[in-house]
Structures are given as structure tokens and as C-alpha cells.
Design brief:
Blueprint (H helix, E strand, L loop, with lengths): L1 H8 L12 E5 L6 E6 L8 H9 L7 E6 L11 H8 L3 E6 L9 H7 L3 E4 L3 H7 L1 H8 L4 E8 L4 E3 L11 H13 L2 E5 H7 L14 E5 L20 E6 L4 H9 L3 E5 L1 E2 L2 E2 L1 H10 L4 E4 L3 H9 L5 E6 L10 E2 L16 E8 L2 E7 L1 H7 L7
Parallel strand pairs: 3-4, 4-5, 6-14, 6-15, 8-9, 8-14, 9-10, 10-11
Antiparallel strand pairs: 1-2, 1-3, 7-16, 12-13, 15-18, 17-18
């Protein structure tokens, strides 16, 4: 199953809105790995079929390990349960059940056909692997991550807005790895104003995320780099419902997609924004700035996962921008706790990683057992 998980991660970022899945065909007597495969991209063959095709005749009587319950319905591809039966697999072992109603309980179907089945192997690891998919199926919203690079005193920029570069090269490469696995990256107006970012995946191999800019009144110029749209570089501008058409037309002319959304106070209603992303089949969002946007998502309970790069740097600017600019708290008990907290070295920086209460609630959903 660990091999199947490693295979699945190869497809992460390419399979959305489907989950990344890995499969391994094993000889039950010798334990030899006969074949392995993963779901390479949305619309292509599922992991089970890739592995079974590779195994050929050797699949007969073999065991199949797969991270997610095999599907038994016709979608972009034929049902995997049909391929499993045709191949002559004797036993199917999977990590977690598929909560998608369309999946129609593939394990039950295989069991009825006389196969041995088992589920619940490395379920916790596989729920994290498939967290984007689980979020859109179980919560009807994308999985939302925040990535920040900050100084030791919690600043992401000095008071002038200058922030290049707080983190080192290895931390920047990690940031681009996150972009490569994410459906869409989100920034606020001020990040575009200060940095003129391109928001693409340049430092690692991988696809570009959809770029989403939140600008309530559309005060930005369409000449910023993020609004240069190509087939590989898509951009969405999210704004208020009352923005006049003449202000939007220069962006539309450049190929930018417009989301006009209701306001909550004077800012875009983030709940409406997230609902729109779900409607557009976006299963994961990466929030990359700035501090006020991070704070707004935090206050709305819309953050599932945090990646915080801490640089060996003290800014000391009393008006510098904090990584999370949210509302004042009266008690420490009101602070937001992170779970499954981990740290690792990234060059001269440290990466701190954790899951919020919202994220851990989803990952604790019981999906392992028959």
C-alpha cells in the first residue's frame, strides 16, 4: 500500500476534480510486485487499469492494492471493477472507501462477484493524499491552504510593502511545488500592487494553477503580469456585484474570467467566493497573500492547512505586515490551533506545517471500514 501511495502522489495536481490514485498488482505467493500504476490525469485511464494492463496475464489470481475503492460506474472511463473482474484478480485491498455517491460501492460489487476484499489499510495517509477530493465530495467546497514566508517576528513585509525576498531559494522552490499540485492560487489586490507577481509554476516541473485575484472595486490596472492570459496561464478576477461593465471590459478583452460576487461589509463575501470555486469544480485553493487576506480566510473558518516558512530574519518594523492580520482577541484560548504539526529545514529557513480544526475534522471522517 505504501508503494501505491507513492504512485498516487505522481498524479497529484493533474487528476482534479478526480482524486489521485495508485495501484499495485502483487503475486500472493512470493510477494513480488508484478505491476504498478497511477491515475495520470483527468480523463485518462484510472490507476487500476494502468496497473492491470501492465500486469497482463500475470494479474490472474493476483492481489490488487489500491489507495481508493475501485469505481463501478461509467464516467470518463469504464468501471475499474469490470477491469478487475476481467483480469482475474483474486483479492482487492484498498485504503479507504470512496464517498462519492457515483462510485456505487465498488468493493461490495466485487465481493458479490466472489472476490476477497479488505479496506482500511493506511487510511489516515490516504485521506491526506485525497484531501482535495474528499473536501469537494463531503463538504461541497475546496480544500484551502495558506502558504506564508515570514520573519522570526511574524512579518511578511516591511511597512512600505517590500517583501522580496524573505525566504531563500529552497523555500521558493517549495512554494512552486505547492502551486503545481493546486487547482488555483489566490491573492489580494495589494499583493498585485506591491509585487506584480506572475503566480506561475516556474521553478519546478508542473502545471500552472488558475490565478485568482480578489479586487472588490477593480482598482487594479489590467496591465499587471497576472492578467496576461494564455492557454497555460488562466486568470480569474473576483470583484463586487456592483462593478460597472466598462471597468471590467479591459480585463474581459484580455481573456480574464470575471466572478462578480456579493459583499460582506465592504469586502467580497469569502463564503460566496468559495462556493463559486466549488461550482467551477475547483477542488483546492492556495492562498498566497497578503496578510489581511490570510486573516479574513482565518476568521471565516475557511483554512484547512497552513505552510509557514520562517526565515532567519528579524524585521522589527512596528508597522510591518503580519502574516495573519485578523481581528483582536481577548483571550489566548481564542487562538487557532494547528494539528499534526511538523517542521523541516528548507535551506536556511524552517518550514512549519499543520492542519487546522476545519481540516482535521474532515480528515477524521471514518472512511476505512466495510
Amino acid at each position: 500500500m505504501k508503494i501505491a501511495i507513492r504512485e498516487a502522489y505522481k498524479g497529484l495536481g493533474y487528476t482534479s476534480p478526480n482524486p489521485p490514485v495508485g495501484a499495485v498488482v502483487v503475486d500472493p505467493e512470493s510477494g513480488e510486485v508484478i505491476a504498478k500504476g497511477y491515475h495520470r490525469a483527468y480523463g485518462l485511464a484510472h490507476a487500476e487499469r494502468v496497473a492491470l494492463d501492465q500486469a497482463g496475464e500475470r494479474a490472474k489470481g493476483a492481489y490488487l492494492y489500491v489507495t481508493l475503492e475501485p469505481c463501478c460506474h461509467y464516467g470518463k472511463t469504464p468501471p475499474c471493477t469490470l477491469a478487475i473482474l476481467e483480469a482475474g484478480i483474486k483479492r482487492v485491498i484498498c485504503g479507504i472507501r470512496d464517498p462519492n455517491p457515483l462510485a456505487c460501492n465498488g468493493l461490495d460489487y466485487l465481493k458479490e462477484k466472489g472476490l476477497e476484499v479488505k479496506v482500511g489499510i493506511l487510511g489516515e495517509d490516504i485521506k491526506y493524499l485525497t484531501r482535495f477530493f474528499l473536501s469537494i465530495i463531503l463538504r461541497k467546497r475546496p480544500w484551502i491552504m495558506v502558504k506564508v514566508a515570514q520573519s522570526l517576528d511574524g512579518r511578511i513585509a516591511v511597512s512600505s510593502g517590500d517583501s522580496k525576498w524573505i525566504s531563500g531559494e529552497r523555500a521558493l522552490r517549495f512554494s512552486h511545488k505547492l502551486r503545481a499540485i493546486t487547482d488555483a492560487i489566490v491573492v489580494g489586490k495589494n499583493t498585485v500592487l506591491k509585487d506584480d507577481p506572475e503566480l506561475t509554476t516556474r521553478l519546478v516541473k508542473g502545471k500552472n494553477p488558475i490565478r485568482i485575484v480578489l479586487d472588490t472595486k477593480v482598482s487594479l490596472s489590467p496591465n499587471y503580469r497576472v492578467f496576461q492570459v494564455t492557454e497555460e496561464k488562466r486568470t480569474i478576477l473576483a470583484c463586487g456585484e456592483d462593478v460597472p461593465p466598462e471597468r471590467l471590459s479591459p480585463f474581459i478583452h484580455k481573456g480574464v474570467e470575471i466572478w462578480q460576487l456579493p459583499l460582506k461589509g465592504v469586502h467580497i463575501d469569502l463564503q460566496a467566493f468559495v462556493a463559486k470555486a466549488y461550482e467551477r469544480k475547483i477542488s483546492s485553493l492556495l492562498i498566497e497573500g497578503g496578510g489581511y487576506l490570510h486573516g479574513a480566510f482565518l476568521q471565516e473558518g475557511l483554512i484547512d492547512e497552513v505552510f509557514c516558512v520562517v526565515a532567519p530574519l528579524i524585521i522589527g518594523d512596528p508597522e510591518g505586515i503580519f502574516s495573519f492580520q485578523a481581528k483582536p482577541l481577548e483571550r489566548l484560548s481564542q487562538a487557532y490551533k494547528l494539528y499534526r504539526f511538523q517542521s523541516q529545514k528548507l535551506g536556511d529557513c524552517f518550514l512549519l506545517h499543520g492542519i487546522t480544526q476545519e481540516g482535521i475534522t474532515l480528515l477524521n471522517t471514518p472512511l476505512e471500514f466495510l
